[in-house]
């Protein structure tokens, strides 16, 4: 079951059923997008409960005082389990559902890919500076960070011949790069040919297709966020 509307302050938490994994999220959140990509890539069934991040439900704050998404919740051995944070959620899913590992089994390769994943925070910072303030210096910074990834890409995907955890952890912001066009940034395929090829390959990945929010709807949300009045539920 998918709860399409984002639940707000004053709402009630939907009953949690045994043997059902629940993802708390927000439709447009790239951090939630990470978790959904992992769930889709591994074929894990789950229900989704969306949370209004401006008017957060009291019951959600009781579960997770910072009020952030994503978070996982489930019942095991008659006990309710809860895990927040996109990295933690994604790592847990990869370990608990070992079929089709997304992390490399080799510790060295896993560490190398985790470095790339951690450094995407620099790209994320530049992304939001461009999106919210059209900061020209941030555009130069974005190109610098993209150059680092361009130089690091040695195969079809960052994870090798198939997309791995590193690809899914980075993808949400690359999928959103077209949203920066109006602010003056576009990915130059001549300057970043390997990244441009990677983006095309990722767009054809089944999990990516399943989790994609239509660009026109994403643009509406981004504009509402920029206006200071985020709209989470579009008809």
TrEMBL record:
It comes from Didymodactylos carnosus. GO terms for biological process: glutathione metabolic process. One of its GO terms (cellular component) is cytoplasm. Its EC number is 1.20.4.2, 1.8.5.1, 2.5.1.18. Exhibits glutathione-dependent thiol transferase activity. Has high dehydroascorbate reductase activity and may contribute to the recycling of ascorbic acid. Participates in the biotransformation of inorganic arsenic and reduces monomethylarsonic acid (MMA). Keywords: Oxidoreductase, Transferase. It catalyses: methylarsonate + 2 glutathione + H(+) = methylarsonous acid + glutathione disulfide + H2O; L-dehydroascorbate + 2 glutathione = glutathione disulfide + L-ascorbate; RX + glutathione = an S-substituted glutathione + a halide anion + H(+). GO terms for molecular function: glutathione dehydrogenase (ascorbate) activity; glutathione transferase activity; methylarsonate reductase activity. Belongs to the GST superfamily. Omega family. This is Glutathione S-transferase omega. Residues 106-221 form the GST C-terminal domain. Coiled coil: none annotated. The keyword Oxidoreductase applies. Gene3D superfamilies: 1.20.1050.10, Glutaredoxin (3.40.30.10). Residues 19-101 form the GST N-terminal domain. It holds the Pfam family GST_C_2. It comes from the Eukaryota.
């Amino acid at each position: 079951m998918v709860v399409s509307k984002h639940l707000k302050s004053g709402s009630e938490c939907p009953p949690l059923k045994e043997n059902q994994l629940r993802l708390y999220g927000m439709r447009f959140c790239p951090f939630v997008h990470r978790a959904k990509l992992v769930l889709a890539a591994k074929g894990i069934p789950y229900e989704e409960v969306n949370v209004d991040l401006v008017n957060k439900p009291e019951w959600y704050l009781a579960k997770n005082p910072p009020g952030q998404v994503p978070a996982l919740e489930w019942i095991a051995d008659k006990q309710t389990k809860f895990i927040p944070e996109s990295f933690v959620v994604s790592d847990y899913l990869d370990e608990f559902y070992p079929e089709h590992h997304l992390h490399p089994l080799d510790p060295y390769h896993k560490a190398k890919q985790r470095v790339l994943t951690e450094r995407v925070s620099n790209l994320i910072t530049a992304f939001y500076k461009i999106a919210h303030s059209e900061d020209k210096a941030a555009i130069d910074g974005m190109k610098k960070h993209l150059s680092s990834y361009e130089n690091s890409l040695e195969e079809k995907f960052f994870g090798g011949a198939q997309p791995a955890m590193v690809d899914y952890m980075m993808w949400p912001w690359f999928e959103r790069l077209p949203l920066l066009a109006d602010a003056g940034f576009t990915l130059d395929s001549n300057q970043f040919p390997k990244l441009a090829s990677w983006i095309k390959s990722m767009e054809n990945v089944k999990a990516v297709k399943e989790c994609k929010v239509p660009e026109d709807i994403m643009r509406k949300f981004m504009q509402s966020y920029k206006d200071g009045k985020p709209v989470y539920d579009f008809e």
